[in-house]
Amino acid sequence: MPFTADTAAHQVQERLKNIYHLVHEVEDERNRSEHNLNNIVKAHEKITPDDKVSLYYQQRLKNLYNAAVSDAQQEEDLIRKALSKISEIRAIRNERRIQARNAGNKETIRRGALMKMLLSTAQTLPLYVGKAPGAKAPPLCGAVPAEPTYIAKVFFIKKLLLFKISINVDFYDYCNYFCCDTSLINIVTVS
Length: 191
Fold this sequence. Notes:
Order of helices and strands: HHHEHE
Shape: elongated
Oligomer: single chain
Helix content: 55-70%
Distance between the termini: 41 Å
Radius of gyration: 24 Å
Number of domains: 2
Strand content: 5-15%
């Protein structure tokens, strides 16, 4: 979907406002759930470790735990919505950058500036968070290997962990070799 500079800026501003409101909703939800957590702590303080837990306290703790889990799920949903807005903003910015490149606006970036940009992108790129506890991560996410037939999408950003980058190899050749010019990659080196 082609973006002009104004529409892209407007859409990013709109999503930033949504993120602002979502962050406040998360904070409100956290304040509401704090009451249940305090009640759980108080109920545990009333129970002495030597005595058996009475049926009343068992039921009360069960209800408090269920309420706390429900509150945590609502908070999780709000955080997931905020993360999806962040990824939408990243997609808009990336699409705008691709359009500028295709229009002939080639940006020349010095090596140090490129490494700084890669570092900042790697540090701010959201991590994969599965919905269910047993959900499998997508290929190349964390330590999940890709299938031999897996082909990365063009301009798809992934974090890579590379060991021992040879200093003799030019950085740009190294990126082209590993990514085949398909995307901007985030590199974390381990010596």
